[in-house]
Write a structure and sequence with these properties.
One of its GO terms (molecular function) is phosphoribosylanthranilate isomerase activity. InterPro entries: Aldolase_TIM, PRAI_dom, RibuloseP-bd_barrel, TrpF_fam. Belongs to the TrpF family. This is N-(5'-phosphoribosyl)anthranilate isomerase. This protein is α/β, with parallel strands linked by helices. It has a single domain, classed as TIM Barrel (Alpha-Beta Barrel). 37% of the residues lie in helices and 19% in strands. The chain is built from 8 helices and 9 strands. The chain has an 8-stranded parallel β-barrel with strand order 1-2-3-4-5-7-8-9, surrounded by 7 helices. The protein starts with a strand and ends with a helix. The mean pLDDT is 91.
Length: 227
């Protein structure tokens, strides 16, 4: 059963659309340290997250500043924190301990450059980098793409063959992101067999809102691949 996270929720209409189409989790980008289209301040995030119905997981996407991350976790009370910054492994481990102390789980991405194909991590070896993230104590590993201008939402896929090898080698639930859309997510799920998939730009329209047809088609494609 591959789960679906719709990320970059910044409008209430998009929240209700995603839930109605069957999303398992919603991602809220909160006070992110880079200029991204989906960024929310904590008050706006709190309002949206409060509107999320029961049985749908709330994930905040944050990064870099440990004090800010902990403050946001305390205020927003998400089910999970996605550490999507450039946190070193040692800092990640410390943040995981602090966030777990608040009763919240932690997701951490291993990101691959769309320009070079290399992973953005302390180790250039993607399998060693994944192992280091696992040892930091996180609850799930995300594989995503990153560009020189965007930390996520690049529209570019990661190497699915590498992703499958990483899934086999780590004990963590693996969440596949990066360049997914309704036209390829079924193939991605078949190739990688991830615990979940995470989408943002692949279900958006030209003005940055979630496209009802794209959201519905994406979740249907994942649902069909579950059989």
């Amino acid at each position: 059963m591959t789960r679906v996270k719709i990320c970059g929720i910044h409008r209430e209409a998009d929240l209700h659309l995603s839930v109605a189409c069957g999303a398992d989790a919603l991602g809220f980008v909160v006070e992110y340290p880079m200029d991204v289209p989906w960024n929310l301040d904590r008050a706006a995030a709190e309002t949206l997250m409060y509107a999320t119905p029961p049985f749908v997981s709330r994930v905040i996407v944050v990064g870099d500043d440990p004090a800010l991350v902990i403050a946001l976790t305390k205020r927003l009370r998400p089910h999970a924190v996605q550490l999507h910054g450039n946190e070193p492994i040692a800092v990640t481990a410390e943040m995981v301990t602090a966030i777990h102390g608040l009763g919240v789980q932690v997701l951490k991405p291993l990101r691959f450059s769309v320009e070079t194909g290399r992973c953005h991590a302390e180790s250039a070896d993607p399998f060693e980098a994944a192992r280091q993230i696992e040892q930091a104590g996180v609850d799930a590993l995300i594989l995503d793409s990153v560009s020189d201008t965007r930390p996520a939402g690049t529209g570019q896929s990661v190497d699915w063959a590498v992703a499958r090898q990483i899934r086999v080698r780590v004990r963590l639930p693996l969440i596949l992101a990066g360049g997914l859309h309704a036209g390829n997510v079924g193939q991605a799920v078949a190739a990688v067999r991830p615990y979940g998939v995470d989408v943002i730009s692949g279900v958006e329209n030209s003005v940055g809102g979630k496209d009802p047809a794209k959201v519905k088609a994406f979740i249907q494609a994942v649902t069909q691949s579950r059989c």
